[in-house]
Amino acid sequence: MMQAATDAAAHPAHEHPQSFWRTYVFSVDHKVIGKQYMSLALLMALVGGLTAYLIRWQLAWPETPVPGFGWMPEPTMYDGVVPPEFYNALITMHGTVMIFFVAMPFLLGAFGNFLIPLMVGAPDMAFPRLNMMSFWTLFSASTLLMASFFVPGGAAAAGWTGYAPLSADAVFTGVNWGLNLWILALALEFGSFLMGGVNFLTTAINMRAPGLTLTRLPLLVWMQLTAAVLFMLSIGPLIAGALMLLFDRTLGTSFFLPQRGGDALLWQHLFWFFGHPEVYVVLLPAFGMLLEVFPVFTRKPIFGYRTIIVATIATGILSFLVWAHHMFVSGIDPRLATPFSITTILISVPFAVMVFSMVASLWGGSITFATPMLFALGFLATFVIGGVTGIFLGAAAVDIYLHGTYFVVAHFHYTLFPSVFLGGFAGLYFWYPKMFGRMLNETLGKIHFWITVVAFNGVFIPLFLAGAAGNMRRVYNPMQYDFLKHLAPIHQFATYFTIVLLIGQVPFVINFVWSMFRGEPATDNPWHANTLEWATSSPPPHGNFETVPTVYRDPYEYSPPGVSEDWLPQYTPSPLTGGAR
Amino acid sequence: MSAMSVTEGVHATSRDFARQPLGKVGVWWFLASEIMVFGGLMGSYILSRIAAGGWAAERAHVNTRLAVINTLVLLTSSLTIVEAHAAVDADQRSRVRTFLLATVLLGCMFLGIKAFEYSHEIENGLTPASGLFWSFYYTMTGLHGLHVLIGIIINFSLFVAAGGRNFSRIQHRVEYAGLYWHFVDVVWIFLFPLLYLA
Amino acid sequence: MNATHKPGVGYVTIWVYLLILVAAGVAVLGAPVSKTVAVVLIFGVAVVKATLVIRHYMHVRQQPLMIYAMLTIPVLLAIAMTLALLPDIGLRP
Fold it and tell me: Which CATH architecture has domain A33-535?
């Protein structure tokens, strides 16, 4: 503790004179790296959004030219029309991009990197150079993935889940190097987040400011740490599996190809053993942002801090025990169906505990509906729909009917989209002043929120109905089947709202860019929040804190009794007793 | 200068429970994730082997004798690197260099024997495409071999650095390199019986 | 400044034990025992070897509890995953 204080004094927050490249490109400063992750995520979100547009157009008006895409050459598209091969590539890349190159970089890479050192009172991450390497590894992965669109045969087209044997031999999809590049891009992405995870965990465990015990950590840090642990424990078998898949495709090995003696189901197990914890890797950081925004805009503490931590850990453990619910109809041993149904229903319990704690945190609060709070509330409300529909799917008997339909598509969009684009935006609007030293425009923010949340529901509520009516997913043209023809208006309805949703992001882009140069300058603590990142300037200097802060209390002391202000930061000694409370 | 981390010298606070230097915690976390990678591969191998009925015929073609030698080589290299670590603690620079070099050489010997094994098998028409057993054999030993190679590079760069003036600043990395190297050894301790013995 | 690790039992001594264990593992191959017993013995030997390296060369005994957890949990998880897949992948025709 003394060591840290002395070091901070010897190495105060000052600017090293550095070249442009060192400051903005090859920086080892976690704040710059966090913003780099955010830029990459937002750019890839554009790619994800465009793929969504193309997919939804094809579903609503099959085999008609997509407006704005007449320029795309053959054989990718034909006079603006999406052919079946490209459709498969589109759905694959939409999923891959959104989960691995938008959700994770945005929620973990950007906010985890930016906030964790600040919230624990550290000058930077434990391993700054490793941090820089993690970003550039992800950048290389993104480049490889985008390049896969341009190779002969086009991009990967076996779904983001890459099931064997479809993915295990190029002859099945007609895609050769596109899928190999997909595997390599994913391998690099895994490596990138492994590096990041090491940093997050080591920093939060070993570099906390004096007085910052684990039970005084902001819940966002707890969530990021749990996500990092989940990722690191679950990714190993998939890394092995990815290597095996690549070798099946390139070296003639037999891992997943039945005709060579392999087992295609093994891939599914290896994939989903990771794939299920992965969705909590995406969700938990988003919950973390919600849990930081709520107390600030209700001016009361989070209800059930320790309960939430216990529930989070329980969720983390259970998340390793549910994966086969993705495989109920894949030909697994039927005796596995019941245990996995039970665990899947069970995992809704800690979630319910967390959701009730969040609602209780709102109860009786003095709520300000600023943009971050709107997004956080929208996140909670829409996510609950996602969670509840998961229960339908978790019961094996019901899943037999609903698996592989648009019901599943709607369910996971109701969990993933709110996490990334409602929870994530809550965080963005909340911490933008800290990151860029400027306030975002509230009016544009509110417009962005309302269009996003309404349009999102407009896209995906109909898809629950389509799925329940039997509409299979990953089908290029559902209208070729008589029994689905009556769903055409549903698909068109969803596509109209997709277009509205995409256009609705324009106010956000304008706000983001314009405010960076012309926004109202931000003070150190514009929201009157209690956690450590608000103890320093906006944006923080290199080294984060002039002197290492000392932590005196829990992070959510809002409206504390006996204090004239309605907030009491972690880092100020108590006004009543003059020392640690 | 600009590459110097602002966290140099920042150590554990008194309230944490790891109480270790940052680099060591980082290495342990990395090893934890690697356990899952090799665990996944080995688990898949065990399952596939049970399903296939044992692969006795295929396994008759592996060179157990060479694998035994390789096991002894790797175990000895674990000894040499832990001796290098002890020499760092005892501040005996030349001993550090000797043992690091020995570790590097033993690592190269391991890879050399492995390469010989591979070439012999490939000559006999046993490639990764020769069936599921060989798929696993090449993938598991190949991935392990890649880890050995990376370890050799790390150990060699420490050997070189140990001859220079700035070594005392980074000498704690010998222990971290040792942790990684021991892990690679432990993986082989399990690969050896899985592929060659049982 | 690094903590000096007191070996207790010397490193070379451990190395000798390891060599003996390698020999024992190979010896099981020729021993007149059933396949199942052979497999159990061979893997038992491997576990002992690994334990020796981890305890005495990686100095795990001198690490805090968290390190033990970081090692044990993945191992148990990998074993659990393999067992869970046994009905599906291992025991199907």
Answer: Up-down Bundle (1.20)
